[in-house]
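User: what does the whole thing look like in 3D?
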Amino acid sequence: MAEHHLTHKDLVKAWVLSYSSETCYNYERLQALGQTNQMMSVVTKLYDTKEEQVAALKKYMEFFNTEPSWIGTVIHGITISMEEQKANGAAIEDEDIISLRTGLMGPMAGIGDTVSQAVVYPILAGICCQFALQGNIAGPLLFEIVYKALMIFFGYNCFMMGYKQGKQAIVSLLQSGTLDKITEAFSIIGLVVVGNMAYSRVAVKCPLTFRSGEVKVVVQDMFDTLLPGAIPLIITLLVWRMVNKKMNPTLIILIIFIFGIVCSYLGILSAA
Amino acid sequence: MILSAILVALLATGSQWWFNHLITRTWLYPLWSGFLVGVFMGQPILGMKAAAYIQLTYLGWITAGGSMPGNLMVAGIYGTALTIISKADPRMAVTFAAALSLIGIVQNTAYMTINAFWVHRADKYLEEGNLKGVRLMNYLPSGILSLLLYGLPVFLMIVYGATWSQNMIASIPKSLANALNLVASIMPALGIGMLLNYIGKKKLIGFFFLGFFLTVYFKLDTMACFVFASCVAAVMYYFQNDTEEAE
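Assistant: Here's the predicted 3D structure for the full assembly of 519 residues, as structure tokens:
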């Protein structure tokens, strides 16, 4: 049997196709069909007969879900390298590939979602919104360009790293705790920036004033002297508490609607 | 008008039918998708501002494991389109977007549920050795489904919705407009709360307060906070490595 090797072009093609993993996104098996679609390009290169191709593809129809565009691509890189070795006679069982994929999809989703959704997205969107609100068209353009550039940089390199270094490298990286430390460093940046946004974006003030004799008391001035930003901070912490109590986001939105409308009509709070 | 509506409908379709994340990944986010709506409808600046206000509501929203706490795509695309056709104040549009995004949960759930049928068909095709059929199942039926669930409603809204939406906006009294403005100002707290819940471990939560009070007392903007936070994170990262080596 002739050796089957993937060229760089095959790998790039598989990487691009991996970005279709959520095209037919569904509750039952999430990214499974999309992954099968991706592996089709690889498997048809590696196996000659239709029977072998079908047998190889079947394992990708199993439930699969990870972070798809930034970090999770590393799993596809590893999978493809294992599939290539298997096609060339290495003693790799289908179960090995399935268990590796199932084992890595959780941790990679954890890191990938932290980097992409908890750090890059809010920071970039927060900064770009400032431009956009000033009427500067650079806002959305910068968001699109920087987001995609970072996504492609991470996604491509993780994919290729997975392919070249295989599962050992990733498993040892997981075990050494390096990934946790990187996640933590990203979290610190995310938290500081979110703290900034809690003050600058939750723009709420208290319009109440009291009159005691000749003295006019402006409640907001009292807050500003004692603890500026107290109102946005309290609101943010209360909402966080609700999220933390696993309250349904839909319910929280409804509560915010009712709370806001009531407070506005009572004259307790207003938009700053 | 019709052309704008068609373009927005296609955008809405792709905002859920992620045919390739190299293109569609950012269609999820109101700032970009809403801006595109503005461009397609010939109102890029208004669209961009509405999109930015909507986006601020959803900072920190995390969609993981296929769950979606509110429909970001509907908020961004439908919200911006509604702002433009109703000639509303972009700030006010935020509350409509939030309301629409709740209805959008139904669209998202329907999409994710019905798509499972195509997966079963793909199983069958794979069994028969029909690889083209499998590939077709990945792309085609989900695309048509998204066109119906996401594209068609926004198309109808843009073509037929101008009059009623303008009447609706005009009928809102000043006091309610103020109240909705307040709601819009509180809404970012939800995204922030979600984010804190996701990354706010006890030992790190001090950094949230650091960012908050740096902004209160020193008036730092987001970019400045990002720069200082990066420095702190880098120092922390290398210090941790040092202490480990010392042990």
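In plain terms: Chain B is about 80% helix and 0% strand. Chain B has two domains: 2-199, 201-247.
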